[in-house]
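Model it.
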Amino acid sequence: MEDTLISADWTFALWTVILGLAAFAFWVESTAAAKYISGVALVILLAIALSNLGIIPKSAPAYNAVASFFMPFAIPLLLFKADLRKIIPETKGMLIIFIFGMVGTVIGASLGYMLLPLGPEAANLTGVFSATYIGGSMNMAAVAGAVQLDPSIMAASVAADNVVGALYIAFLAFMPPIMFLRRFLPSPIADKAEHDAEEVQEHKAAVVPLNLLHISVALFLSMAICTISFKTAELLNIPGYGILFVTAYTVALANIFPQQLAKLDGDFEVGMLIMYLFFVVVGAGADFNQMLDNGLVIAAFAIIIVGCHFAFAILGAKLFKCDMAELIIASNACILGPTTAAAQAAGKRWHTLVTPALMLGVFGYVVANFIGVALANLLAV
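Modeled.
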């Protein structure tokens, strides 16, 4: 067990920190500083600092609860307003960015394979990280098993992926306030979200209090969807893919009953709060010491892949005149998977991008394993 000021089994103290970091991030976003710093980036960086300074643990049952229970539970709350008739025409450029990013991931992995001394597991690592940075960590585990990656290399890979992934989310979160990037790649979506936030600040007295009836109905529906979704995955013998059914069932419900669900008040806000708790867990899990001890070369490999991915993603966004917010969320979905991308879209209040984030992430789940295994076998010849 880790020797930290707050131990992994000191549950109340750990939840105090998790909720306190989320509250602090929300407070910062309610001030003038919100124009210059993202609450998402802030909460991740603070969690990284606390865990690597020995204040909080890097793994704990509380973190597992957030990742395995609260995160799936939040997804329906974010998707009840997901009317595809409105969303798809507005976000069609995200698929283009995602595909450009996929190409960048494969090229970056191949480049790292040629440049770095990855050892006898080089081909397997290339396949594993290609899959990881097209579909997310779930694909890392799947491809590592398929190519029989050495367990010690796998441990170093997980450590490197956690650190690089957490820093990449923070990097993406810091992008919108950077003005030269906004001029290079304008973002009407971010402009609208910022304008809406300013209007709320100016008219706080007019904000309607949260409706407890609406919130309780939303929580009930979300729990029911998760129950049915994970049972479906279990019956189909694919328990790790329950999140796919959560997304599918919720989007179906949102498009069958769009008018009824549009009347719910407070569902998105509750889901967004849960997503901030998830960002604390993401940051806390970034173990710099383990990465430095076992995975510096692998971390360099991951950085090359992510850098190449981002270069291609921004190229696609510029060529097809996409919104910078679309670039950020599509890139997140490719590198880190659907839940993290949806969380970032929710955290920035880019409501129309939450559903595409999940859909692109699911697409990544589907294709990543095939690409990873094929690349590993090709390089092993």
